[in-house]
Design goal:
Blueprint (H helix, E strand, L loop, with lengths): L3 H7 L7 H17 L2 H24 L4 H5 L1
Length: 70
């Protein structure tokens, strides 16, 4: 069985705090997914949904006091 010191020597990422390892893993995974055709389609769909929801909000919700004052 490999000792902890040997593992840390072979895998320096283990010496980083857990939150940085998690962020790096998530970021790397997202980059990989977004590089695929499916990832691009998902991104496009999310962008379209956001655009439509913004249009709906602008059309259906009243202006705020700040917006009315401008």
């Amino acid at each position: 069985m490999m000792g902890l010191d040997k593992m840390e020597e072979k895998l320096p990422v283990l010496q980083k705090p857990a939150d940085k390892r998690t962020r790096a893993a998530v970021s790397g995974g997202l980059s990989t997914v977004m590089g695929t055709r499916l990832g691009q389609m998902a991104s496009s769909g999310v962008g379209l949904a956001l655009s439509r929801s913004e249009s709906w909000v602008e059309h259906n919700l009243p202006l705020s006091e700040r917006e009315l004052g401008q």
